[in-house]
Each structure stands twice: as structure tokens, then as C-alpha cells.
Write a structure and sequence with these properties.
Number of helices of chain B: 19
Radius of gyration of chain B: 25 Å
Mean pLDDT of chain B: 92
Order of helices and strands of chain A: HHHH
Number of domains of chain A: 1
Strand content of chain B: 5-15%
Structural class of chain A: mainly alpha
Order of helices and strands of chain B: HHHHHHEEHHHHEEEHEHHHHHEEHHH
Largest sheet of chain B: 2 strands, antiparallel
Number of helices of chain A: 4
Mean pLDDT of chain A: 87
Distance between the termini of chain A: 66 Å
Shape of chain A: elongated
Largest interface: A-B, 37 and 53 residues
Oligomer: heterodimer
Number of strands of chain B: 8
Low-confidence stretches of chain B: none
Low-confidence stretches of chain A: none
């Protein structure tokens, strides 16, 4: 527990004593991560195969069909 | 493919190119500046000189801005693999997954732990623990780059794998063959040393600006002294590994090699084009770019590629139309054999499903015998010139990179020499040159990736999977929307980075001004 408290204090003090620029950068990181993971990933970047198929066999059959359509 | 939506393929390619190029704007400074910081802090710990500590802290601030803005921009590329390039993601199997998984874990644990100690730990941990953390940030970021570059090198030269026709995936046969392939090693060292060069140029440019403004003399002079040597060494290694990379390209990607040099007709004693300019397209030769003028160095291309001035270098026409004297199959022949491989894969799966064991074995043999041409099968019955990358883009980006590399090396040497002779003071022209070289470092760095990635088109995996087969069947409109979304987000991030960095530079460091030291 003591070590966890020390780690917590380390980060807490670090963030608390951060410069204005540091705080601005953390805000940018936060906004960026929200855009990436809560907007882009959820609404625009669904994993194509995982969203359509549930088993490895189905995925494999679909890709096979795609890759062997050459005529 | 039955109906290829070129709009979808092109937008997916454009989106990947956009995100990769933006991502690469942030990466090299992290890779190189972390190394420079580690050296600076080592000097502080070794000498106990507080000025080195302040110098380290100043550059650490610049590093922090770049790191914060750039962090996680690479994740977008992984999103794109799953959404836009699902056939590719499935086809590559664990070859790509393993290095990326290692990269993700390593980057997270090494960087998140040690970056925090590096920034927050000056008064919390001992000097040695802090120094170790700074070195670990360098090691962590460069190891992350290693795994990404190994995966990229595998796409350029697939090795250490076996295609499994049952799962339609590639499986890793030897991790070490993938990791230690000459393509991967050269790519890794070439890329990271070019990043060190870029970082050294940034330090050199900012320090020069301070000298022009008569500010931060100690910081500027000490930084210049360090990075002039560091940058020159990095640049020399970049040249050596670039030569190694080019040799690998000549061996495994002859079309890219020919495009880089604008070589259409293969020849022995092939000359190297030192500089050249293409003329207007000639309607009489639609598949050929003609030089308006060019300066050649006789025999040099053959020598550089194979260490033999008499070596034969195939040209674009030899590769497209074949050269039986030299044992080169035409693309039409390769497309036929690729088609046989693709049909055999379908027939193998069907025979297996219907329990025709002998038929399955026969089809498997056909697939194995023709697998090296697999990707060409997608161009069966099509115009095989689609297999030629943009010669102009490949040629210009390659030559621009090389010319700028020469300029960087010369600049480092001049700074090194003048600093050693204590003659830097008042060299305004040199300081201005260093400042203007900063954006050129990014131009050269991006140009390197353009050569590597445009030159290998249309292959996502060399000879095995072209982009037309690798793309997901999704709506092209959604790719267009995300393209512009990324463009907006990344441009905003870039503007933020430049603004914050400029304000940081203008604020300066805490190092006490001392004119005396600069003149010693």
C-alpha cells in the first residue's frame, strides 16, 4: 500500500506542479484521445471483419471469397 | 477482383498516406531528441555542471511538446488496418500482429513510466535514477520504432513466413528471420539515424536562432558543439544504411529501384542519375517518362546495387515486358501464374469441403508452385502497366532526399569545424542556413517515406497482395469523411505544436547568459 501511495503522490505532485504549457498539453492530449477513441473509433472505425462475423471460420471464408474473385 | 471500386481504393490509400505522413511529422523528433537528451543529461551527471542540467531541461521541454502532440497519432493507422484494410489485416496474420502487439505493450510500459519520471522526477529521484529514466525513454521510443519498422520491412520483403491455405493467413515460421532480415535491419537503422539527424538539425537551428538574437549563448554553444558531432555521425550512418536499403530494394523490389532512377531499359554498367528533370509527357510513349535533362555517373548504379560495375540492372520495360535472356518473366506471364495460384486456392478449398482429397493435394501443389506470383493474378487480363508505380514521384522524392542528405552532412561538418576553431561568432549566413534547414529536415524525412511507400505501389505486400485486393468493401464516402476529419484534426495538432514550440523557444531556458563561454 505504501508503494502505491508513493506512486500516486509522485504523479499527483507532478501534475500539480506542472507549468501552464504542461497543462495546455495535457488538455490537447485529452481532447485528442476523446476524438480518437470516443468519436472516430466508435462511429467511423469499426473493425470490419469483427463487426460482420463472429467466428474465425466465417472471417476466413469471407476473406477467401474476396481474394479469389478475380474474373 | 470482380468490380473494383477505384474511388474506394484511392481514398483508402490517400487516407493512409495522410495519416502516416502526419504521424511521421511527430515521430522523428521524439526518437532523436530523446537520444540527445540522454547524452546531455549524462554530461550533467558526469561533470556535475548545473548548466548541463538546465540545457537538458530546456530541450526536454521541446521534447515534451512534440511528445504530447504526437502521442497516439499512430493508433489511427491501426484503426485503418481493421476498417479499411481488413483483407490485408487477415492475410498478414500474426506476422504483423506480433510486432505491433510487442510495440504496444513496450511503448505503454516503458514510455508511460519513464517519461513521467523524466518530467516529474528531477527532485523526487536520485540523479542516477533520473538519468536511467531518460535513457529508457530513448530505448523505449526507439524499440517501438523497431517493431513498426520490422512489420513495414516484412511488407516490402515478406520473409520468415508460410502461407496457410486453410486459414488464408500467413504464419510466422521464424521470428528471427522476420526481425533480422537485412531489409528490416537496414530500414530500422536508416530510419532512426535519419530521425537523429533531423533532431540534431532542429537543435542546431534553434541554437543558431539564439546566437543570431544574442540570447542563450551557453545553451546554444554547448548544444551546437554536441549536435554538430552527433548529427554528422548520424548522417554518415544514415548514408551507409541508406546504401544498404537501396541494395535490398535492388534485390527484392526491382521495379521500385528502376522507378527511383527513372531507368526504363535495363543494362549492364548502368549509370546513376545524379540529377534529372522529366519533360512533358509524350503522347507517343504514354508509358514512359522522358528526361528533359539529366546528369549521369557512369557504371555507378550497377556498382552501388551489386558492388559490380558490370551488373545488369533491369529497367521498367524489362520488368513489364520480360527479359528472357536475363531470366525475367513479363508481368503478363506473372499475372497468368498468379491467376493460377488464386484459382488453385479457391479450388483447394472447394475440394477440401467436398472431401476430394487428391484434388485438394493437386490444387495445393499448383498454389505452392505459383505462390510467388500470387498478387500478380489480380492483374490478369488488365493493363499490366498498372503495376508500375509513379516514376516521377519515386525519382524526385529519392533524389530530393539524397541531395538534402548531402546538404545536412556538409552543414554539420562546417559547424563542427568552425566550432572547433572557435570561429563561429558572427557567422550569420551559417546561422540563417541552419534555421532554414529545419523545415528541410522534415522534407527529406517525409521524402524518404514517399520513396519507400509510393515506390512499392501497387503492393501492400510485395508480389503477394496489391491494394486493390487488400481493401475492405466499405463505402467510399465514409472514407472521404474520415479523410477530411483527420486532415482537420492533424492540421490543428500541427499548428498547436508549432505555436507552443515557438513560444517555448522564445521564452528560452534558465541558463545564465555568459558571453565569455561562447568565445572560448
Amino acid at each position: 500500500m505504501k508503494i502505491l501511495k508513493r506512486i500516486f503522490n509522485f504523479y499527483y505532485d507532478g501534475f500539480k506542479g506542472m507549468s501552464q504549457t504542461g497543462k495546455k498539453l495535457w488538455l490537447i492530449i485529452f481532447i485528442k484521445l476523446v476524438i480518437m477513441f470516443l468519436i472516430l473509433k466508435i462511429f467511423f472505425f469499426k473493425d470490419f471483419l469483427n463487426s460482420k462475423f463472429s467466428t474465425e471460420k466465417e472471417k476466413s471464408e469471407y476473406v477467401l471469397k474476396q481474394l479469389t474473385k478475380t474474373k | 477482383m470482380e468490380q473494383i471500386d477505384f474511388s474506394l481504393v484511392d481514398w483508402s490509400r490517400a487516407q493512409f498516406a495522410l495519416t502516416a505522413m502526419y504521424h511521421w511529422l511527430f515521430v522523428p523528433l521524439t526518437l532523436g531528441l530523446s537520444f540527445i537528451l540522454a547524452i546531455m543529461e549524462s554530461l550533467y551527471v558526469k561533470t556535475g555542471d548545473e548548466k548541463w542540467k538546465e540545457i537538458t531541461k530546456f530541450w526536454m521541454g521541446i521534447f515534451g511538446v512534440n511528445f504530447a502532440i504526437g502521442v497516439a497519432t499512430g493508433i489511427i493507422l491501426e484503426f485503418e488496418f481493421g476498417t479499411n484494410w481488413s483483407n490485408y489485416s487477415w492475410f498478414v496474420g500474426d506476422i504483423f500482429g506480433a510486432p505491433l502487439a510487442i510495440e504496444g505493450i513496450m511503448a505503454f510500459f516503458l514510455e508511460s513510466t519513464f517519461v513521467a519520471i523524466m518530467f516529474f522526477g528531477w527532485k523526487k529521484v536520485s540523479k542516477k535514477v533520473h538519468l536511467l529514466s531518460t535513457w529508457m525513454v530513448f530505448v523505449g521510443s526507439n524499440l517501438s520504432a523497431l517493431w513498426i519498422l520490422v512489420a513495414n520491412a516484412w511488407m516490402q520483403n515478406p520473409t520468415g513466413m508460410r502461407f496457410n491455405p486453410d486459414s488464408v493467413r500467413n504464419e510466422m515460421l521464424s521470428f528471427w528471420d522476420v526481425l533480422l532480415s537485412p531489409t528490416a535491419l537496414n530500414k530500422f537503422f536508416h530510419t532512426v539515424t535519419s530521425a537523429y539527424t533531423l533532431s540534431a538539425l532542429m537543435v542546431l537551428g534553434i541554437s543558431s536562432w539564439y546566437l543570431l538574437k544574442n540570447r542563450e549563448q551557453i545553451l546554444a554553444m554547448r548544444s551546437i558543439k554536441l549536435v554538430a558531432i552527433f548529427g554528422a555521425i548520424a548522417m554518415i550512418i544514415t548514408v551507409i544504411t541508406g546504401d544498404g536499403s537501396a541494395k535490398e530494394v535492388a534485390k527484392h523490389q526491382p521495379m521500385k529501384f528502376a522507378a527511383m532512377e527513372g531507368l526504363y531499359k535495363g543494362q549492364q554498367n548502368a549509370p546513376l542519375v545524379a540529377i534529372g528533370l522529366f519533360g512533358k509527357p509524350n503522347p507517343a510513349t504514354p508509358n514512359k517518362e522522358e528526361f528533359l535533362f539529366h546528369i549521369e555517373i557512369p557504371n555507378m548504379l550497377s556498382y552501388l546495387a551489386f558492388m559490380d560495375a558490370n551488373a545488369f540492372i533491369p529497367g521498367i520495360q524489362d520488368l513489364v515486358h520480360g527479359n528472357h535472356e536475363k531470366g525475367i518473366l513479363s508481368y503478363t506471364e506473372r499475372a497468368e501464374r498468379g491467376k493460377m495460384a488464386i484459382d488453385a486456392l479457391a479450388a483447394y478449398q472447394l475440394a477440401k469441403k467436398t472431401g476430394k482429397i487428391e484434388e485438394a493435394a493437386t490444387q495445393l501443389k499448383i498454389l505452392e508452385n505459383n505462390f510467388e506470383h500470387f498478387g500478380y493474378g489480380y492483374y490478369f487480363g488488365r493493363n499490366v502497366h498498372e503495376l508500375v508505380p509513379s516514376v516521377k514521384i519515386s525519382f524526385y522524392s529519392f533524389h530530393l532526399m539524397v541531395i538534402l542528405g548531402g546538404h545536412f552532412l556538409l552543414l554539420f561538418i562546417v559547424f563542427w569545424y568552425l566550432e572547433k576553431k572557435k570561429k563561429l561568432e558572427g557567422k550569420k549566413w551559417l546561422f540563417h542556413t541552419a534555421i532554414w534547414t529545419m523545415p528541410l529536415a522534415y522534407v527529406a524525412s517525409e521524402a524518404g517515406w514517399v520513396v519507400a511507400e509510393v515506390g512499392r505501389q501497387p503492393w501492400v505486400i510485395q508480389d503477394l497482395l496489391p491494394s486493390i485486393a487488400a481493401v475492405s468493401q466499405i463505402d467510399a464516402f465514409s472514407v472521404q469523411i474520415t479523410f477530411f476529419l483527420f486532415f482537420t484534426v492533424f492540421t490543428a495538432l500541427l499548428i498547436a505544436e508549432i505555436k507552443i514550440m515557438l513560444s517555448k523557444v522564445k521564452t528560452g531556458s534558465q541558463v545564465i547568459e555568459n558571453k565569455q563561454e561562447t568565445l572560448k
